[in-house]
Write a structure and sequence with these properties.
Nucleotidyltransferase, domain 5, 2 domains, 15 helices, 14 strands, 6-stranded mixed sheet, alpha/beta, single chain, 8-stranded mixed sheet, binds adenosine-5'-diphosphate
């Protein structure tokens, strides 16, 4: 099947056309700066044909029309006719407690995604823009929602509840949901395949380290603990998000600095993490450069970033009763050897021994980077959320046809 996969953000639309019979992307692209002047559409085809279009793209609907035009473009396209697209898969960040798997989109599903916008205001409304635009452009094509939270629906109660009055769970469904589920699912499954292990008898800790970062304990193919929580600012230190710290601190700062709730949210989501500590950037490459040039705060930010990952690996090893593997993925996990090295430093006690030479040679590719004799394998697995989305779409479509 040919599946169009869409990941719609506030001002961007990422897309891929995936041929699921080959498990490969025929093209991938991004429309950036939607709604602003000089929007930019960049696309790369499987044969490295590249196209860049600068235009004023005022809405997600216009963005999708441009993307569909390019998909069937004589020079840069991959399909002859648009009706060769069998279905559209949408990444949706929050599926709450309702969706533990991918579903065909109908009015009821749209209303539920809307409902969860309240707890995912930075994501769900924009995911919906993409959904509505795609339905308008391709009204006869099945549209499927694939949720970031779904893989974590297997979390046991003791892992998803917070130690605050129970009434807030009853009233507002305040609990841990977890995110990046599609990525954790993909890399855990892939790690079992690489090691020739049965996923149903395999314990793995997956570290997704991108601009947003999270870590998950996967036991026998199921997520049993994860670091992102009710919101997308919990757990690990991230590019601009704080991760876990003493909740009294924010109350104290709000009082001292006379901050509004909006200002406090902005502090925790946009001004913390690598950016907040280093004062340089939220981008790992820039923080690394500053650290190399002797910037002490950049050096501290890097140390904290990996120290926090190590604390989580230790605690998730306890949760799993020992791990068979540790996986690194996403922009930082795939491309930054020294962060991987510091994150597993001193974990020899639990059987995780890094091969520094292999680790240093591994940038952006699948590779086992632990020593041959290491009991716990350390693996780099480039993530592929779009492929999981496309495969899920096929499953949903096939179920309907049965
Ligand atoms: P997201 O999808 O969450 O926006 P990514 O998975 O693309 O994020 O990861 C972005 C992060 O990865 C940034 O901090 C970026 O600096 C870092 N990164 C990506 N590629 C490299 C690289 N080759 N070397 C160092 N850091 C990299």
């Amino acid at each position: 099947m040919k599946i169009l996969v869409l990941n719609s953000g506030s001002s961007s639309l990422k897309y891929q056309v995936i041929d699921t019979s080959k498990g490969e992307a025929l093209m991938r692209g991004i429309v950036d700066r939607i709604g602003m002047a000089n929007s930019l559409l960049k696309q790369k085809r499987f044969d490295n044909d590249v196209v860049e279009v600068e235009d004023d793209i005022i809405s997600h609907s216009v963005a999708i029309e441009k993307v569909l035009d390019l998909i069937i473009d004589k020079q840069h396209g991959v399909l002859m006719k648009i009706n060769e697209i069998d279905a559209v898969g949408h990444r949706v960040v929050h599926g709450g407690e309702k969706f533990s798997r991918s579903v065909l989109i109908n009015d009821k599903v749209i209303r539920a995604i809307e409902e969860y916008s309240e707890i995912a205001p930075l994501h769900n409304p924009y995911n919906l823009r993409g959904i509505n635009a795609a339905i308008r452009a391709l009204p006869k094509v099945p549209q499927v929602a694939v949720f970031d939270t779904a893989f974590h629906s297997s979390l046991p109660e003791e892992a998803f509840m917070f130690p605050i009055p129970y009434v807030f769970y009853e009233k507002y469904k305040i609990r841990r949901y977890g995110f990046h589920g599609t990525s954790h699912y993909y890399v855990s499954k892939r790690a079992a395949e690489i090691l020739g292990r049965d996923i149903n008898n395999f314990s793995v800790i997956t570290c997704h380290l991108g601009n947003g970062a999270s870590i998950t304990a996967v036991k026998n193919g199921k997520s049993i603990e994860t670091s992102l929580g009710f919101s997308t600012i919990a757990g690990l230190m991230m590019g601009t998000r704080c991760g876990d710290f003493d909740p009294a601190v924010i109350l104290n700062i709000m009082e001292k600095e006379d901050l509004t709730i909006e200002q406090a949210v902005s502090l925790l989501t946009k001004h913390s993490g690598l950016l907040g500590v280093s004062g340089v950037s939220s981008d790992m490459r820039e923080v690394q450069n500053a650290a190399k040039n002797g910037n002490k705060r950049a050096q501290l930010a890097l140390k904290m970033f990996s120290y926090i990952i190590k604390k989580y690996i230790g605690s998730y090893s306890a949760v799993l009763g020992g791990a068979d593997a540790i996986v690194f993925t996403a922009g930082i996990g795939e491309n930054v050897p020294n962060i991987r090295e510091w994150s597993v430093e001193n974990l020899e006690y639990m059987g995780a021994e890094l091969d520094k030479e292999k680790n240093n040679s591994c940038i952006g590719r699948e590779m086992i980077v632990s020593k041959d004799e290491s009991k716990v394998k350390i693996i780099v697995v480039p993530t592929n959320e779009e492929l999981v989305i496309a495969e899920d779409v096929v499953k949903v479509i096939e179920e309907i046809d049965e």
